[in-house]
């Protein structure tokens, strides 16, 4: 069962998706799937190639920006920025629970100058708490 949670009009997150969820993503109007889960993190979960192949079969773009236990980096934010700038429609990002995908989006958007409070509210509306990330988001927003 698909669990797509919108954070904005053009970006949603989900816990680990299945190959079958890719068709549901296509039906829901997504143009791209972004995998934020490193391959091998959970061997029984569909790996990146499984989702990439299913996305290709559905005509969806696919990208991988793995976020492991080391946390987030500017190159990861740069990669999401570039993907969002080039996206031809709404983006669905996933990881184990959707938290890393939410955090990556929030950091990227804060760095771009979006209102940090509004980003926190959007995440809360989708069931994700950004309070622990708020100092980093504020710092990124201050760099603008």
TrEMBL record:
Residue stretches making up the Beta-lactamase hydrolase-like protein phosphatase-like domain: 3-111
Pfam families (alphabetical): BLH_phosphatase
InterPro entries documented for this protein: BLH_phosphatase-like (IPR005939), Prot-tyrosine_phosphatase-like (IPR029021), Rhodanese-like_dom_sf (IPR036873)
Secretion signal span: none
Listed GO MF terms: hydrolase activity
Protein name: TIGR01244 family protein
Taxon lineage: Bacteria, Pseudomonadati, Pseudomonadota, Alphaproteobacteria, Sphingomonadales
């Amino acid at each position: 069962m698909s669990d797509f949670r919108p954070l904005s009009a053009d970006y949603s997150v989900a816990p680990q998706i299945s190959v079958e969820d890719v068709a549901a993503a296509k039906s829901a109007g997504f143009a791209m799937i972004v995998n934020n889960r490193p391959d091998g993190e959970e061997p029984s979960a569909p790996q990146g190639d499984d989702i990439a192949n299913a996305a290709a079969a559905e005509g969806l773009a696919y990208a991988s920006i793995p976020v492991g236990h080391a946390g987030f980096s500017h190159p990861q934010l740069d990669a999401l920025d570039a993907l969002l700038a080039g996206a031809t429609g709404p983006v669905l990002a996933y990881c184990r629970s959707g938290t890393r995908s939410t955090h990556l989006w929030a950091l990227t958007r804060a760095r771009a100058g979006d209102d940090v409070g509004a980003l926190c509210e959007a995440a809360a509306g989708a069931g994700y708490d950004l309070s622990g990330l708020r100092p980093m988001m504020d710092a990124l927003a201050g760099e603008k």
